[in-house]
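User: Sequence recovery, please. Input:
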C-alpha cells in the first residue's frame, strides 16, 4: 500500500470534524513529502532535531505539531515556527513557551497532557494536577500561549475496554475543564487522543484530533 492510499483510507474513516495529524517521526523527508502531495498539511514529530530537518526541507505551509515530551531548553528552537505543542505537562514549560513565543511575537497553541493510563511510564499531568494548574491561574497572564484543549495517550494494551474507559475519562475531563475555565472561549476545542491502533475507538469516544503514524507511513 502506498502512503497516499493509506492516507486516503484513514481519512475516509474519520468524521469531517476530526483533525488528522500525520505522525512522520522516524520516517524520511521523502515519505512526509508523499503525504504532503496527497494533500496532508498537519504533521506531528516528537524530536526537536528531526523536526528541524523536516521543517527546513519541506513546504512552509505545513503546520507542525510537537507531540513528544518537550524539554524546556528546546522550546527556543521550535518557537519561531511550531503550530502546536501537544504534550504540555507543567507550568514551567508553559512559562518557557510564553517567553519564547513572545520573543517571536507569536501565539503558540498548546494542549494539556493528561496522564490517565495505568502505567508508570506514561507522561502527563494527573487530573488533579492539571485542575490545580488551571485553578492557580498563572496561565491567564500568558498572552502568547493559547490553551486549545487536552491530549492523552491510552495504556499500551490489547484490552479495548480499558483503552475505552481511558478515552471516556479524557472526554469527561475535557468537559469539566471546558465548563470551569473556558466556557466563553471557542478556541478551547481540541481533544487529542487516538493513534494507529485505536483512532476509530477514540473517535467513538469523543476525540476530534487523532495522531496517526504507522498506519499511514507503515511500520
Ligand atoms: C508516535 C506517536 C503517535 C503515533 O503512533 P502510531 O502508533 O505510529 O500511530 C501518536 N502520538 C504520540 C504522542 C506518539 O509519540
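Assistant: Recovered sequence (219 residues):
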Amino acid at each position: 500500500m502506498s502512503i497516499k492510499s493509506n492516507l486516503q483510507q484513514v481519512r475516509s474513516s474519520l468524521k469531517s470534524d476530526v483533525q488528522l495529524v500525520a505522525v512522520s517521526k522516524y520516517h524520511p523527508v521523502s515519505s512526509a513529502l508523499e503525504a504532503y502531495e496527497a494533500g496532508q498539511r498537519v504533521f506531528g514529530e516528537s524530536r526537536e532535531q528531526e523536526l528541524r530537518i523536516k521543517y527546513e526541507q519541506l513546504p512552509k505551509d505545513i503546520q507542525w505539531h510537537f507531540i513528544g515530551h518537550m524539554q524546556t531548553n528546546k522550546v527556543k528552537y521550535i518557537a519561531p515556527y511550531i503550530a502546536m505543542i501537544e504534550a504540555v505537562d507543567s507550568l514551567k514549560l508553559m512559562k518557557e513557551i510564553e517567553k519564547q513565543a513572545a520573543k517571536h511575537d507569536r501565539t503558540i497553541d498548546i494542549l494539556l497532557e493528561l496522564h490517565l493510563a495505568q502505567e508508570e511510564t506514561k507522561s502527563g499531568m494527573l487530573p488533579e494536577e492539571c485542575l490545580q494548574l488551571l485553578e492557580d491561574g498563572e496561565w491567564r497572564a500568558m498572552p502568547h500561549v493559547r490553551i486549545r484543549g487536552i491530549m492523552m495517550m491510552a495504556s499500551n494494551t490489547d484490552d479495548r475496554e480499558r483503552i475505552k474507559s481511558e478515552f471516556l475519562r479524557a472526554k469527561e475531563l475535557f468537559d469539566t475543564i471546558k465548563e470551569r475555565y473556558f466556557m466563553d472561549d471557542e478556541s478551547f476545542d481540541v481533544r487529542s487522543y487516538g493513534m494507529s491502533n485505536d483512532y476509530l475507538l477514540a473517535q467513538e469516544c469523543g476525540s476530534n484530533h487523532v495522531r496517526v503514524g504507522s498506519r499511514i507511513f507503515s511500520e
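Residues 23, 25, 46, 67-68, 153, 195-196, 211-215 surround pyridoxal-5'-phosphate (CB under 6 Å).
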